[in-house]
Amino acid sequence: MKTILNTGVVGLGRLGSQYARYLSSRVPGARLHAVADVRPKVARAIAAETGATKVYGGHEELLGDPDVDAVVVMTPTKLHGTVVLAAAKAGKAIFCEKPLSLDLKEARAMKAAVAKQGVFFQLGLMRRFDRAYAAAKRRIDDGAIGQPILFKGTAKDPFPPPVDFVRPENSGGLFMDMGVHDFDIARWFMGEVTSVFSVGSSTAYPEIGRVGDAENGITLLNFANGNIGEVHLSRTGIYGYGIHTEIVGTKGTIQIGYDRETAVRVMTEGVIAHDTIPGFYERFEQAYLSQLQNFVDNVRLGRPAPINCDDGIAAQKIAMAATRSWHSGRLEKVAP
Fold first, then answer.
1. What are the CA-CA distances from residue 257 to residues 127, 218, 236, 284 (Å)?
2. In terms of domains, do 184 and 231 share one?
3. Most exposed among 138, 154, 290, 316, judged by the fewest C-beta atoms under 10 Å?
């Protein structure tokens, strides 16, 4: 067993910077050894804040550092494949943020490289590590609601990200970037998805439509076991960040999610009000931390990854089929 895992973070955007902070002080068994970003000023600032020993301008230099045991890939999705393939060749343990890739051929190449080099790989789909989702999974597996027969997922951002981000060539689009979480959770709770039908629109932010994406989308799911589901994705939540999931079973229903950040309600004449969840970081900080801790412990203890390339490819296939359906206006099969 390795006592301390020397980690390197590639990509220091909003979440990548948080991961660097976590690894520097809040993940027992890990040491933040190096950070890399194409923006030297950002990389130096995060290194100074976290105490990272080495600062690199790109993933190649970081992966060439013999003291790096594991790499955390937090680049834009379109660069995941490049970094993961290089990390596998370098023999590093790999944590890669979702989605696995925007291209199915590349995703399969990533899986093949990981297998060929025999390196550890774990995909970041943090909802599985959220206490509420994990508790619901245990209750369902224990038979609390009987046989699950209907899945309903809703994900709402209060406002859209910059237009350059939502471009499908950069993010994969609404059904990939946002939907991959719900598609993964749907598989986790209900089993494999065989076909989908999607609709989408861009009314509040027509500029999103002009670059080929949607601000709101709905995908209907058909599962291999004959059950059904629905996923609603929105970049017009307005009031706050909202993630809700409902699984209906033959003997009951489980609901996951909440809208109130603090346990305070203000009651005045004709009005009962409370605050809302500001964003994804506030809602899922515990899950992000638990996910990184799980990755570090798995590598140190030689345990298998709970979320691997196969899970990433499966969720990616559903997202790709959902996107195709939106464009074609037809039911689309999920690639077997």
1. 11, 19, 18, 11
2. yes
3. 138
For residue 291, tell me if it sits in a domain. no
* Token code pair at residue 106: 């590349």
pLDDT tens for residues 26-66?
A: 999 999 999 999 999 999 999 999 999 999 999 999 999 99
What total number of domains does the chain contain? 2
Q: Name the 3-class secondary structure at 58.
A: coil
Q: How far is CA 39 from CA 12, 59, 322, in A?
A: 9, 12, 34
197 and 58 assigned to the same domain? no
Closest Cα to residue 323, out of 199, 144, 210?
A: 199
Do 114 and 121 contact (CB within 8 A), yes or no? Answer: yes
Distance of CA 231 to the CA centre of its chain: 16
pLDDT at 89: 98
User: Are the C-beta atoms of residues 29 and 9 closer than 8 Å to each other?
Assistant: no
Residue range 109-166, pLDDT digits in tens: 999 999 999 999 999 999 999 999 999 999 999 999 999 999 999 999 999 999 999 9
**Calpha distance 130→301 (Å, rounded):** 22
pTM: 0.96
Is residue 78 domain-shared with residue 148, that is, in the same domain?
A: no
Q: How far apart are CA 143 and CA 80, in angstroms?
A: 38
Q: How far apart are CA 94 and CA 96, in angstroms?
A: 6
What residues pair up with 230 in beta bridges, in sequence order? 152, 220
Rounded CA-CA distance 46/13 in Å is: 10
Rounded Cα distance between 274 and 188, Å, is: 32
Q: Find the distance separating the first CA and the last CA of the chain, reported in whole Å.
A: 38
